[in-house]
Amino acid sequence: MSNRLPPTWAKHLKTRPSGEAAPPNAVPTKAQPKVGLPRSQADDMLLRQALDFQKAERLPEAEELCLRVLERAPNHPLAFYILGTLGLGHDDEKALRYFARALGEEPQNPYYHLSLGAAYLKLSEFTPAIKHIQIALDLKPDLVEALCTLGKAYNESDRGEMALPLFEKALKIDRDHPLARTGLPHALASLGRMDEAAAHLKEAIEQRIAVPNAYNALVHTRKFTGEPPELAAILTELRNLDHGSDGAPALHHAAGKVLNDLGRYKEAMDHFKKGNQAGGHTFDLESYRRWIDAVVETFTPELVASRAACGNPSEVPVFIVGMPRSGTTLTEQICASHPNVHGAGELSKLRRVANGIGLTNCSNINLGESIAGMTPDLTRMLAEEHLAYLRERAADSLRIVDKMPHNFELIGLICLLFPNARIIHCRRDAIDNCISCFVLQFSDGHNYSADLQTLGLYYREYDRLMRHWDRIFPGRIFENRYETLIENQEEQSRRLIDYLGLSWDDACLRFFDKDRSVNTYSRWQVRQPIYKSSVKRWKNYESEIQPLIDALGDLAEI
Questions:
Q1: Domain containing 448: what range?
Q2: Of 514, 441, 530, 528, whose CA–CA distance to 191 is shortest?
Q3: Which residues contact 57 (CB under 8 A, 6 or more apart)?
């Protein structure tokens, strides 16, 4: 879900409070309705204008019109709904509230149920997400968007096999629907069925459906040993101006991936750089540094000692943290291969808790005040709620793993909530780690990775914070060095399982046979036995990455 209302949903939404859709010519050229129009018709016109503003990415103007409608009609469902879509991505809690209010006014509207479910899914709240999306399908069984969103929910909650028939049904209803065309191969790839995924992606490309993203997904289904016809096709697509700024990053990264496989590293890096530049991402490094400063100043040994008895003593939670591409998925796969461990994937729940109590990366937040507001009762309540959330995924597992890498920022919160939680920190050669981030088309939440110098400086801040956590939580955090795991898989795997407090199981050596959904860029790699080709991979690009090496400084192991 983005904060732009999908056209396929918008055309079904009724803009009049009475439920009667206004005629197309009811939308004026200006937002202000004509004098003398009935109030409901005037509201209708404003909301249609708000939808137009939203589609044009004029989001503040769309919000202002919705709020104007709510001043006159305080319970207008479509105004609530549009405000919900505007909140997605930057204030998801507000989006949930607005969608819920829209649904309260029209409880039989399948699109409102679908949007509320999709918002919950964005926050990894799988139980309410699936509930509302299923209600949408009960109300409108042929709603393709709901079938695909439910498939995505099952896929992300480690029930990939349940996702496949939903995408297949969606394709029977609409063979050319982008969500169905791209969703099915994604589900197949997450289950390791790469050849089938590739076949569906090729079909999508032939039908000219989501071409840039389809090519990007296609090239990640295999490793190329000879130049494939897809490379020339991708380079041709890059000359197609119809793809615009949204398509160029995906195509450049796709070309770079193929060229990297072929050992044509200079050409590959040229495409990776162009792809990141085309994305237009920026990152406020100074603001991030100030936030790290505040975290270091707030979380002291004295604070930790004073809160030692406030959390939940459960040993169930396990958090795998570190920079993205540091081996977090591989580590989770090894742990989750143990019969007493459930790998829950990347969960955003802890981030929601942090947002709720004011621990987010925001220069206007006083972290000391936020921590002071965490009374013993609130701490216990948050911990119990989080534990129940984890238990929904695997009620009987002795350990449940959340492998959201950026929870490295929240280790202080983890230790306050769960003093007995296991924390596994995945660390990798700094240059290798950064290059592996740079060459992938990450989401907007990873804007730091789009520029080599910024990426290196960001890595230094990550390293500074992790060293702080090691100082104030001595012996609590298990450092899982990627190179050590690659060099001696069994020995390091045994250390991991021992750290989890479990007896050894040989299944952990065959992690690549684990039958579960993997939804990160590592989904191909973690289904292969351990290989060493990714160690010191950065040397292939040495002549192209000096800004990164300079920014890393003494952390660069040359």
A1: 285-303+313-555
A2: 514
A3: 4
The letter for the amino acid at 70 is: L
Report whether 115 contacts 81 (CB < 8 A). yes
Decide if 361 contacts 420 (C-beta within 8 A): no
The answer to whether 177 and 171 have CB atoms below 8 angstroms apart is: yes
**Residue 365, pLDDT score:** 64
The total number of structural domains in the chain stands at 1
Identify residue 86 by its one-letter amino acid code. L
Residue 529, in any domain of the structure: yes
DSSP tag of 309: T
Q: Tell me the DSSP string of 167-189.
A: HHHHHHH-TT-HHHHHHHHHHHH
What own/partner pairs with CB < 8 Å and gap ≥ 24 does 29-36 have? Answer: 31/61, 31/65
Summarize pLDDT for 324-351 with one digit per residue, the tens. Answer: 999 999 999 999 999 999 999 999 899 9
Low-confidence spans in the chain with pLDDT less than 70:
1-39, 361-365, 514-533
Taking the C-alpha atoms of residue 221 and residue 195, their distance in angstroms, rounded to an integer, is 7
SS3 (DSSP) at 471: helix
Q: How far apart are CA 454 and CA 285, in angstroms?
A: 7
Let me know: does 153 contact 121? Beta carbons within 8 Å. yes
What span, in angstroms and rounded, lies between the C-alpha atoms of 293 and 290? Answer: 5
Q: What is the 3-state secondary structure (H, E, C) of 277-340?
A: HHHCCCCCHHHHHHHHHHHHHHCCHHHHHHCCCCCCCCCCEEEEEECCCCCHHHHHHHHHCCCC
Q: Is the dihedral of CA 235, 238, 242, 248 positive or negative?
A: positive
Identify whether 175 is part of a domain.
Answer: no
- Model confidence, pTM: 0.85
Output the CA–CA distances (angstroms, integers) from residue 188 to 131, 191, 193, in the order listed: 23, 5, 5
Q: Residue 384 sits in a domain of what CATH number?
A: 3.40.50.300
**What are the tens digits of pLDDT across the range 40-72?**
888 889 999 999 998 888 989 999 999 999 998
Residues sharing a CB contact under 8 Å with residue 213, sequence separation 6 or more, in sequence order: 182, 250
